[in-house]
Write a structure and sequence with these properties.
This protein is mostly helical. It contains 18 helices and no strands.
Length: 425
């Protein structure tokens, strides 16, 4: 019955070459995580594919009219919450954790970036059910979240260079962000224009080929930007190419939920658990320093509160009511993908340059990045999906309006009176 016993000899084998001290080298009892056994290249490739689908879905959901009407609010929502949280984290990490100012601001930009992997699927789901569509709230959040990541990654690169490469040119570091924006906008616009007209709208397989062109363009943008060391440009280009292509498709009558979007939605059913599982592999409990845990939670919670206040103020100058502003303050909270990608970089760079005095700060930064994922990703997703139907107005369909008019009690009473008058006559 016990097949495994066959491999164990009944009589012990006497061998002078085997000693009891050698068992430590034979049996490895150290705790391991599934992420340790996953090839980093495969993990990065899978995360990039998932992110491509997310960003393309986001770009197709952006309404051009709503984006034009909310352009000022998008700019404010991109910069104000990010800078507010970054400054608060830099100050508190300097006072509480003793970080230098350059490291504090670098940590601030790492933790200030919101996660499209969490926000966009939730907003797409709410948009599909009609919540917040009339005022363009999904468009506002999707557009500003992509730009927010570009700002955060660019700021991180600048202060990382100032920390490790004091001799680096300040002009070169400061131009990194604008170059990312230029590359992203240029490539995204060109590829989006190509996707507008190839293939012809009368082609019998138009949906398949338009999906292929967009998906391949997103992969080229993200992998190419990483190869060029301008990672922020890839995400921006992916959203812009889908947005530009969708503008022409809307004119052809496809509307918000076009056939290409439906294909990406079906892909996301498979890819959603995959990307969150990959993010989970980045959360390694053994990397969490107990001494940093309490102070780290204090820094994160305080920065999140200031960020929510900054978001509320950033969207105040517009036509949104109080409930919608509160929803946006919570929607601007989740963090995951950027923190998982940027969190280990400081420690890796310190080890590469053999700067032992930076090791402890690197471990603390990784701990804070892990904590930000653990706290904000599930909490943000739950609050977006839970508060959305309660705080956002739902768009009424034409059928609902017709049914509402048909079931109006006053109209029914008036019709009955008219019928009675005719019968009396």
């Amino acid at each position: 019955q016990h097949q495994w016993k066959r491999s164990i000899p009944e009589d012990p084998v006497e061998d002078d070459s085997v000693h009891i001290e050698d068992t430590t080298s034979i049996v490895n009892c150290e705790p391991r995580y599934i992420g340790h056994d996953l090839d980093p290249k495969i993990s990065t490739m899978l995360r990039t594919i998932c992110l491509t689908v997310i960003l393309l879905m986001a770009g197709l959901e952006i309404d051009p009219v709503a984006l034009w009407n909310l352009s000022g609010m998008v700019i404010r929502a991109t910069f104000i919450p990010c800078f507010v949280e970054c400054i608060v984290i830099a100050v508190m990490s300097n006072l509480v954790l003793g970080f230098p100012w350059t490291v504090g601001f670098m940590l601030g930009f790492v933790l200030a970036a919101v996660s499209p992997a969490v926000i966009i699927p939730c907003l797409v789901s709410l948009s599909g059910r009609g919540y917040g569509v009339e005022k363009g709230i999904p468009t506002l959040v999707i557009a500003a979240s992509s730009a927010d990541d570009v700002v955060a990654i660019s700021g991180f690169g600048i202060f990382l260079g100032l920390t490790f490469f004091q001799d680096a040119s300040m002009v070169q570091l400061m131009m990194h962000g604008p170059i990312e924006v230029l590359l992203g906008v240029s490539f995204g616009t060109i590829w989006g224009l190509m996707a507008q007209w190839i293939p012809h709208k009368q082609h019998r397989n138009v949906t398949f080929f338009r999906w292929i062109i967009l998906f391949s363009g997103g992969l080229v943008a993200l992998f190419g930007a990483h190869w060029l060391k301008y990672d922020g440009a890839g995400g921006l280009a992916t959203i812009i190419m889908a947005f530009v292509a969708g503008m022409q498709w809307r004119k052809e009558g496809w509307g918000d939920h076009n056939p290409v979007t439906k294909v990406f939605t079906k892909m996301w059913i498979i890819l959603e658990p995959l990307i969150f599982g990959l993010i989970g592999t980045e959360i390694q409990i053994d990397k969490i320093d107990p001494e940093t845990l309490g102070w780290g939670i204090l820094v994160l919670v305080t920065a999140l509160l200031f960020r929510m206040v900054g978001t509320f103020l950033a969207v105040s100058c517009g036509n949104l009511n109080a409930k919608e502003k509160i929803f946006l303050a919570f929607a601007w909270m989740p963090k995951a993908t950027v923190q998982a990608a940027l969190g280990p970089i400081f420690l890796e760079r310190a080890k590469l340059l053999q700067m032992t005095e930076m090791y402890q700060m690197g471990e603390q930064i990784l701990t804070l990045a892990v904590l930000s994922i653990l706290i904000t990703a599930p909490l943000g997703a739950v609050t977006i999906m839970g508060l959305g139907p309660k705080l956002l107005e739902k768009k009424k369909n034409e059928e609902d309006e017709v049914d509402g008019e048909d079931s109006d009690p006053e109209n029914d009473a008036q019709e009955m009176d008219n019928i009675n008058d005719v019968d009396e006559d």
